Amino acid sequence: MKIVENVRVCRLCGHMDAVESSGRCPSCGAFSGLVTLPRGDAEQIGRRYRRRAMIKRLMSMAAVLILVVAVALWAAQVFWDRGLRPPKATTQASASTAPKVWGQVRRTPQNTGFTSEPVPYPHRIQWTYTTSEPLSGPPAVADQHVYLITEDGRTVALDRKTGQLFWEYDNGGPSGSSPAVVGDDLIVATRPGVIAALRRKDGTPRWQTALGHAVLASPIVMNGTVFIGAADQNLYALDVATGQQRWSFATDSWVVSAVAYAGERVITTSQDNRIHIVGSETGRMRLIYETGPGRHVGTSAVVQGDLAYFGSFRGRVWAVDWRGTTYPLERWMLFWKTNFFFWGWRSKLPIQKGTVWSSRIDGDVTQTLALAHNTVYAGTNTGQVGAFDAATGAAQWKTDLGVRVTSAPTVAGKTVLIGTQAGVVVALDARTGDQQWRFQTQGRITASPVVAGGVMYVASHDGTLYAVEAAP
């Protein structure tokens, strides 16, 4: 007859000991759960416990591994802008910057508003083209045509020599933005939020993308991507060949100005006191720069080298190093350090990451800056025009026009062109600020003058595009 051996077993941890043992479990220290069972039944309890313990260890190890991978992916994105990426652009097409061409709103993707061509002295109006509504955006000029988006709902292609209409396209809505010339296509944006690629030869659409929100900005096209902001507080990157969205980035307010392209990053401003610096291929935030309460930024940034320049309300012109990165909690820490300074608990005011310099000018800077000859040019709502050293911010000259500046400056050769509330284009010497000449229209000028191929193009709120040339 087989004798069944009894043992004492802990139902909580599966530990077995002699049946005559007493007190708590020597393995887990439990007082309860200790029972006397045949050894076979006790061994089954032990095996079940060991399986559960192994599963728990494996699950714990998996959880730790997942956490480590998640932290690594988060760190790669936050610190080095790595990780999952949106679809790549299908081409590398960019807006033209060829000589005698003005291919997009500020000519260069860095928004400099500069051409090395000298501006013609306005001896003669070569031709005019008149629309039924004010013209608020500048044209693009390339090859044999001038391209203009109008407030009466059209995109038109005009003969560059005569101003005669070559073709027109019904946009389905008004627009005050500037088109972008990209190869055989023209990229246009309308206020109802439709972005389209039109064939330059006849104006027929190749693709259309409806963003679903108002668009006031002009497109910037670089390396196969259309960068454009909208009233839904987003910056969009669209594939220039297909119109498909590559990525979007959420800001804190409307995006109404063109972005500035800085290679690996694009710089966008929204209708508040911040500029956002975003990975151009990823759409991920890299740096946020704040100008402070009341210093609203409503203009585009301008890029040269490692610096981005922009103007703000309360008469400030700023230079920021766009290569920095805003890390988690950094802005929160800056906020409290600043408050500690004002409360007298810190001896020095903390310096915001990216700060290089800021300079004063009278009035609000409501128009995008121009950049040429290592000099930043700014105009204000009080009629002040100032030139600042791009490296140091030192004021080089200031000129009072006596009338509100309503267009972003254009620099053509050694001349700064300024559009004003009075409908006048004022030409200033880029080195001294001395006034050289004036060209009068019959309406306010909000579109930057464009210079290409020896002709100055001026779009006015009198509904007329003027093509102005020097005396033959």
Give a structural overview.
It is a single chain. The protein is mainly beta and 472 residues long. The protein has two domains: 6-80, no CATH class; 114-469, 7 Propeller (Methylamine Dehydrogenase, Chain H). It is built from two helices and 36 strands. The protein has helices at 39-80, 330-342, and strands spanning 6-10, 16-18, 34-38, 114-115, 124-130, 140-142, 145-149, 154-159, 165-170, 180-182, 185-189, 194-199, 205-210, 220-222, 225-229, 234-239, 245-250, 260-261, 265-269, 274-279, 285-290, 302-304, 307-312, 316-321, 355-360, 370-372, 375-379, 384-389, 395-400, 410-412, 415-419, 424-429, 435-440, 450-452, 455-459, 464-469. The chain has a five-stranded mixed β-sheet with strand order 4-30-31-32-33, with no helix packed on it. The longest helix is centred in the N-terminal third of the chain and has 42 residues, at 39-80. It starts with 5 loop residues before the first strand and ends with a strand. 44% of the residues are buried. The model has no long low-confidence stretch (mean pLDDT 91). Pfam families: PQQ_2. This is Pyrrolo-quinoline quinone repeat domain-containing protein. Keywords: Membrane, Transmembrane, Transmembrane helix.
